[in-house]
Amino acid sequence: xxxxxxxxxxxxxxxxxxxxxxxxxxxxxxxxxxxxxxxxxxxxxxxxxxxxxxxxxxxxxxxxxxxxxxxxxxxxxxxxxxxxxxxxxxxxxxxxxxxxxxxxxxxxxxxxxxxxxxxxxxxxxxxxxxxxxxxxxxxxxxxxxxxxxxxxxxxxxxxxxxxxxxxxxxxxxxxxxxxxxxxxxxxxxxxxxxxxxxxxxxxxxxxxxxxxxxxxxxxxxxxxxxxxxxxxxxxxxxxxxxxxxxxxxxxxxxxxxxxxxxxxxxxxxxxxxxxxxxxxxxxxxxxxxxxxxxxxxxxxxxxxxxxxxxxxxxxxxxxxxxxxxxxxxxxxxxxxxxxxxxxxxxxxxxxxxx
Length: 354
What we know:
By secondary structure, this protein is mainly beta. It contains four helices and 25 strands. The strands form six sheets. Strands 12, 13, 14, 15 and 16 form a five-stranded antiparallel sheet that branches.
């Protein structure tokens, strides 16, 4: 793209602009029409996002039954507090306990008060309310269990939302499920056919805080209802965003957290069973799990930080760093509540508005 920039070479100027935070980039749109167009090009947006991932944030979301909740950001490299994202939620969003997914700086929010779904970019303050998905959904019924999946299709460069719902009609005693996928590029839903979801028709999918998206694949934990001995049969349900095909993977442990590793692999953390050591398993390219390591003591864990340290929550709700080598804990001043979830977040220029 030709740029009028005086004595500045165009390549050098673009390299400088790519390093600007989103807030500055948005402000500089008014410098010239050329800059405004540049900041919207897919190449610039993608390169800016890749650089943002090197200067990302830790997002700690906490909530309690007393409707006390927060979405705190910390500078990832130093864990210095940044600000509370909750203060910038879209004005129409009224839910205090939101289910959400995060990918490439975008949020997919499920409002618990009206089941509405919103895409939100906190950095640009843009949001999009998704159209309702009622195709093939029985009229006059309310959905009960709801689960989301969200991520970038790396082949089409399109963001997609996967939405699972179950329903129950008290009058007819009818039970059913509804599965659909939304494409941001077309602002439309497609309902999955029965054969598309036959693979996991007997499974229940776990809520979103134990699930994640890695390299264009969204992963959920799923389970069958307990057998006569009271045991659950856990699986990992994967959805490939490019091919829009589901895959069922055996789980190496009964229950845990699905978390991305820094090297781009998916892992599952066995932190759910009290009185046991924490085991971390990694999925290889052949679709098999291998045990990465075992961690003592047994505390709820939320993933690796750096230098051999992991995020943990103490029994009294304190959010800490645990050093695997020295066995020491570090408190960085974040008090958890009854529930806490941890994500990585990076600022993004991806446009949400139509």
